[in-house]
From TrEMBL:
It comes from the Bacteria. The chain crosses the membrane at residues 7-36, 48-70, 82-103, 109-128, 185-206, 218-241, 253-271. Belongs to the 4-toluene sulfonate uptake permease (TSUP) (TC 2.A.102) family. InterPro entries: TM_pro_TauE-like. This is Probable membrane transporter protein. It is a multi-pass membrane protein. Its main location: membrane. The keyword Membrane applies. It comes from Marinomonas spartinae. It is found in: Cell membrane; Membrane. GO terms for cellular component: plasma membrane. Keywords: Cell membrane, Membrane, Transmembrane, Transmembrane helix.
Length: 272
């Protein structure tokens, strides 16, 4: 890899790690649109390399999600019953989503990424006006005991991977409609995102369809190993430096700024 490309990856990883530490927005949401935006600079075709970009970005999230989840476990901010109930669907969704990514078109990714941005906007609104108990949908309020928990969590995991996300954003919105303590929502959604990402990593190792760089050096399936390692290390380093930093006002500004960036990114993807 060129030194310019390594510096670009370090910057992407640093910003995404700080973003996750501050407002818990998955790092792949920042890395993928940024990579697609700057790929022409490195003379790489964005539409032809969407599969390895998504696969590498999502796989690089494993260390940061694991550390954050272990921290939540240590501080007992996790509803174990809900996590165990939702984990099988999340894992299956991750594997299936990873396989479907290699089959989908760039236009399909654009539509799903747009859906993800809509969920990001909803999540910001919920920070300031959470669901009242009377407004929670009955099927979600008791979802951990419902027969629909497997298909719903599977669908969320699948769509999340296809839209270049770990699923944390979707699961956070879902859990806010569930009868779970507010302080446990982040821990459970992080755990589910970890299951999705690890399962997706397995799926990306054996893509359903060959892509532009299949069989070239340093690729494990659809994951480019050197890029993944650089992103993972830079993410984890900045996450550890920025964790538990900033007040509510700082976090609110960062959250809104991140959503504005995602809106601009999805418009750029649609225009191209």
């Amino acid at each position: 890899m060129d030194i310019q490309f390594i510096i670009f990856l370090l910057i992407c990883g640093a910003f995404s790690g700080a973003l996750f530490a501050t407002v818990k927005i998955g790092s792949a949401l920042f890395i993928v649109p940024t990579a697609l935006l700057f790929m022409p600079v490195f003379q790489l075709p964005p539409s032809a390399l969407i599969v390895p970009v998504i696969a590498t970005a999502i796989t690089s999230m494993v260390p940061i999600l694991l550390v954050d989840w272990l921290h939540d476990m240590k501080t007992q901010q996790i509803d174990t019953h809900s996590l165990i109930a939702f984990a099988p669907g999340a894992a299956m969704g991750g594997v299936i989503g990873a396989q479907v990514v290699s089959l989908m078109t760039f236009g399909t990714f654009g539509l799903l990424f747009g859906l993800l941005v809509v969920m990001a906007v909803i999540n910001v609104l919920l920070l300031y006006r959470p669901f009242a108990e009377s407004s929670k949908w009955r099927c979600f309020a008791q979802l951990s005991q419902s027969a629909f928990r497997l298909p719903i969590t599977l669908l969320i995991g699948c769509v999340s991977v296809m839209s270049a996300s770990s699923g944390k954003l979707f699961y956070t919105v879902m859990l806010q409609m569930h009868t779970i303590k507010k302080e446990q929502v982040s821990g459970v959604s992080t755990g589910l995102a970890l299951f999705v990402v690890v399962a997706a990593m397995v799926g990306f190792s054996f893509p359903a369809k060959a892509f532009a760089l299949s069989g070239t050096h340093y690729f494990i399936g659809a994951v480019h190993l050197p890029t993944c390692m650089v992103l993972a290390i830079s993410q984890l380093a900045t996450y550890l430096l920025c964790r538990n930093k900033g007040n509510n006002l700082d976090k609110g500004v960062v959250h809104i700024s991140a959503v504005i960036f995602l809106v601009i990114a999805v418009l750029r993807i649609w225009i191209n």
